[in-house]
Amino acid sequence: MSSWCHYITGYTSQIHYSGVMDEEKRITLRLPADLHEWLAAEAKSARRSLNSEIVYRLEAERDTAASDAEST
Predict the structure, then answer these.
(1) Residue 37, number of CB atoms within 10 A of its CB
(2) Residues 6 or more apart from 36 whose CB is under 8 A from it?
(3) pTM of model > 0.85
(4) CA-to-CA distance for 57 and 67, rounded, in angstroms?
(5) How far apart are CA 2 and CA 41, in angstroms?
(6) Mean pLDDT of 2-24
(7) Beta carbons of 17 and 55 less than 8 angstroms apart
(8) Which residues, at least 6 apart from 29, have a Cβ–Cβ distance to it below 8 Å?
(9) Do residues 11 and 18 lie in contact, with contact meaning Cβ atoms separated by under 8 Å?
């Protein structure tokens, strides 16, 4: 058995994240088992779903990258 976790998705719908209604895109995501376990623990401690934790972290990284780009 592989150490990768598979998330298979399929359709587009509307979703509400960060106070903004956006179109949702579903993807297949493969994570190493240890990264999945760490993210799941972080999500649990923040009282978020695993999906919400991943979105939260990606949005934070995007915002940081945009701020860095503006200050250069």
Answers:
(1) 12
(2) 5
(3) no
(4) 15
(5) 21
(6) 55
(7) yes
(8) 6, 7, 54
(9) no
